[in-house]
Design a protein that fits this description.
Elements (H helix, E strand, L loop, with lengths): L1 E3 L5 E7 L4 E5 L6 H6 L3 H7 L3 E5 L20 H13 L6 E5 L1 H11 L6 E5 L3 H5 L1 H13 L9 H12 L3 H9 L6 H5 L5 E6 L8 H7 L3 E6 L10 H12 L2
Parallel strand pairs: 3-4, 3-5, 5-6, 6-7, 7-8
Antiparallel strand pairs: 1-2, 2-4
Helix pairs in contact: 2-11, 3-4, 6-8
């Protein structure tokens, strides 16, 4: 289906399954297909009895890619998801989850007042939340230097991944410049149940254990893999299903 972002930008949204609603957000340079569907996480959640709502962020996957800088204000992804929540009439009876950039967007939504009955922050650590704006500088440099990175470097790998789901890399620079950090004081006020699944070798966004310690009602769950691999593992769905069953 198609939905409208905060300014009318068309967002592609995949819906699957029946049951309690999970709204799941993907990572940077990715899409609902890449993060949630391709490696079986969505299928496992549907089989466990959940309804999934899987949007593609603006500039990613099958969603529109506005090029004007004014289409990319600070917190634009959170603003789009707020619009989607209103359009779908979700109220508070849903669980909000995300991987990497999706997890950072979940925190921004919570800080801005969203009140789901639970949240999932996958592939995320404390540094990626309280220093979210800093993380974007590496990606901006990578995008600006695209086509020049030596094979095998982290920049080369990131550029190759970006090409699969991003049509206009220059638009993503606007997104990255508008990323907002969330201070520790705000985290201390997020008292809803939160699950933090993270790869055992994933340090891309800092420590997930430190993020769990900064939240009043968080559960850390270690799964195999690093930042790129853990999202492909069946254990991601398994820990989500186990945690959801106890909510």
């Amino acid at each position: 289906m198609l939905a409208n972002g905060f300014d009318g930008t068309r967002l592609h949204v995949t819906e699957m399954g029946e049951g309690p609603t999970l709204l799941l957000l993907h990572g940077l340079f990715s899409s609902a297909e890449t993060n949630w569907i391709r490696y079986g996480t969505a299928r496992r959640l549907v089989e466990a009895g959940y309804r999934l709502i899987l949007p593609d962020f603006r500039g990613h996957g099958q969603s529109d890619v506005p090029s004007a800088p004014e289409a990319w204000p600070a917190d634009v992804l959170a603003m789009d998801i707020e619009a989607l929540i209103r359009q779908l009439g979700l109220g508070t009876d849903y669980v909000l989850g995300g991987y990497s950039l999706g997890a950072r967007t979940v925190v921004r939504l919570l800080a801005r007042g969203a009140r789901p009955r639970g949240a999932i922050l996958a592939g995320m650590g404390l540094k990626g939340i309280v220093g979210g704006a800093d993380r974007g500088q590496w990606f901006i440099r990578m995008i600006e230097g695209r086509g020049s990175w030596p094979r095998g470097t982290p920049e080369f790998v990131a550029e190759a991944f970006m090409k699969a789901s991003v049509k206009d890399p220059d638009a993503i620079i606007h997104l990255l410049k508008g990323q907002q950090s969330t201070p520790r004081q705000a985290l201390a006020g997020l008292d809803l149940p939160i699950l933090l699944p993270c790869g055992a070798d994933d340090r891309d966004n800092g420590s997930a254990q430190d993020l769990a310690a900064a939240l009043p009602n968080a559960t850390y769950a270690e799964i195999p893999g690093n930042h790129m691999a853990s999202v492909t593992k069946p254990e991601l769905a398994e820990v989500m299903i186990d945690w959801l069953a106890r909510r």
